[in-house]
Design brief:
alpha/beta, Rossmann fold, seven-stranded mixed beta sheet, binds S-adenosylmethionine
Length: 294
Amino acid sequence: MKAPAATIDALAGLRSPLRYPGGKIRVAAQLLTYAPDHDEYREVFAGGAALFFRKSNAGRNWINDSHPGLYALYVTLRDNFRSFASLCRKQTGPLRDVFDYWANRRDLMNGEGDENLVERAVQFYFINRTVWGGRVVYDPSRKSRLYFSNPPGWNNLERKLGHLERVSEKLAGVKITCESFEKCLGRLSERAFVYCDPPYMRDTYCHPTDKLYDKSFNEAHHRSLSQLLGRTRAKVMISYDDCPQARELYGDAKWRFVELQWKYCGRHAVTKENKANGIKERKVSGRELLILNY
Ligand SMILES: C[S@@+](CC[C@H](N)C(=O)[O-])C[C@H]1O[C@@H](n2cnc3c(N)ncnc32)[C@H](O)[C@@H]1O
């Protein structure tokens, strides 16, 4: 589906509506300076989709993420903003109780496809705004990660809804899917621009309870992604943590590396070990790689 021409540039420069671990909200403008001309845009690991919201819409746009809550949120904002806003306005009373209500609705977390989309969308959005670090974990084995720690995240609801209404307009005509990345990389032309921001390498090697996303990446996923991207005709931009494994996977001559550095939104956790060593919570700084085939 094609977005109406009049909306294309008016809706560039939007901020992602989500607090998203590993999200590119602060660096989206910087990343966009590397974007090529294109007719079609695909964001394969959308998360908070910071790049998509920041850029102008292309003729065709597709955002994908394997988290079902994100899918419910984006589809509902695109197709049913009024019902979403109305249910958000009903989230009153002690916020901790509201949080517990949504965090215990396992039936919705297990929802698939287009069932109960509005409720699933509000569930995801409410938890994202108020949970620790913006991490919306649906994996029952990591339920303890759903920790209510940011009640101000639900302040100024009407202002948030004003922003979400623009997000909803931006999503008009956008294809939204909840698949593993392989499908979103099929049938690409030379005029397509693909942005990939997969879970970072370091996430693959960290302890299961520290992983940032419900669906984590193992070594085979990283390899299979690099193989698929190596074969495509499209223009590809990939974000990774700067580490030997990423440099090796994209060591072929068709790829070039741009080294970047920034402070992450996340912080070092205050673990017992850190405390004992006198390390306080602080912003994490890291070296990043942008990997391009053009
Ligand atoms: C680094 S985050 C993306 C952040 C995003 N660029 C932003 O600005 O917010 C990586 C995303 O990949 C998703 N993901 C993990 N495994 C996936 C898979 N196999 N296929 C598609 N998405 C996946 C996670 O749910 C997560 O949202």
